[in-house]
Amino acid sequence: MVGQAGQAGQVGQVGIIGGGLMGSGITEVCARAGLDTVVVEVDDTASAAAERRVRDSLGRAAKRGKLTEEQVAETLGRVTFTTDLGALADRDLVVEAASEDEEVKLELFRTVGALLEKADALLTSNTSSIPIVKLGAVSGRPDRVMGVHFFNPAPVMQLVELIPSLTTSTETLQRMQGFVADQLGKQPIEATDRAGFVVNSLLVPYLLSAIRMYEAGYASAADIDKGMVLGCGHPMGPLALSDLIGLDTVRAIGISMYQEFKEPLYSPPPLLDRMVDAGLLGKKSGQGFYRHDG
Ligand code: 3HC
């Protein structure tokens, strides 16, 4: 456990909106850091799936000897799964990790911004590309809104991008820097409020180029990936990584970046569009460029 709340400005109670791939990972990170965590999902089915994701991931950590069964139970004991946004009212910090849809996020920021009870409560988004300033503008608390972008798998990846908008206060940025570094034990970097921030601006054109290469028949998926793993020392190749991130997410980020910069390299290739239309979303759906069983 990295650090619990206590000192002034520290976060004690966290709310996570969305328990999908990223939301459940962020939930695990917060709960393992000792924080009281509420996860809000859209319905009971999604809520049960979120709980299962967190439980399974903690179970795997226990199997690898990283956690004892007692620690798994304690960690799960810190998390409440609900479908009621009202359960976020008393939180010090809310991290929105809903689907990458601007309308959905704007509605959530409007609603949650109005129901937070603490004057200094922070409202953040794990968006990878939607303008933070727009989320702040509808929240009624633009100075306490910013981006906090985790990487998949969140329990493993050390980086967190922090994205203050034009309206975020210095105090908010400083509190989030302390939260990420001291309470979660992760490494923050700061990025400006532009679609893609630092990492996706570099990563997404690379992933899309690999998909174009595969689409054009340059090489097999396995050989493209092997090329980057063995030739460049990457932990996984670009097509396997796209499957891990989710092809719908890669596409959505590419579209947001293309809309902002009109740079052709950010535009999703037709194969990616067709795969998403077909429900071939990668690891989360069981099939993408590769088959994922279990
Ligand atoms: N949840 C929790 N822990 C996980 C995990 C998961 N989903 N997947 C792997 N791990 C842990 C394992 O338990 C293991 O922990 P240990 O070393 O403490 O025992 C460790 O990670 C290594 O796992 P494995 O041995 O099973 O597998 P690998 O060594 O092949 O590592 C990987 C898997 C960590 C996913 C590695 O391949 C990797 O780093 N890949 C690149 C991931 C990446 O680039 N992520 C960023 C995506 S971009 C993004 O998220 C931004 C978004 O906006 C698109």
From TrEMBL:
Enzyme type, top EC level: oxidoreductase
Keywords: Oxidoreductase
Domain 3-hydroxyacyl-CoA dehydrogenase NAD binding: 13-193
Superkingdom of origin: Bacteria
Pathway given in the UniProt record: Lipid metabolism; butanoate metabolism
Residue intervals of the 3-hydroxyacyl-CoA dehydrogenase C-terminal domain: 196-291
Pfam families, alphabetized: 3HCDH, 3HCDH_N
One Gene Ontology MF term: 3-hydroxybutyryl-CoA dehydrogenase activity
EC nos: 1.1.1.157
Coiled coil: none
Protein family per UniProt: Belongs to the 3-hydroxyacyl-CoA dehydrogenase family.
Name used for this protein in its record: 3-hydroxybutyryl-CoA dehydrogenase
Organism: Nocardioides marmoribigeumensis
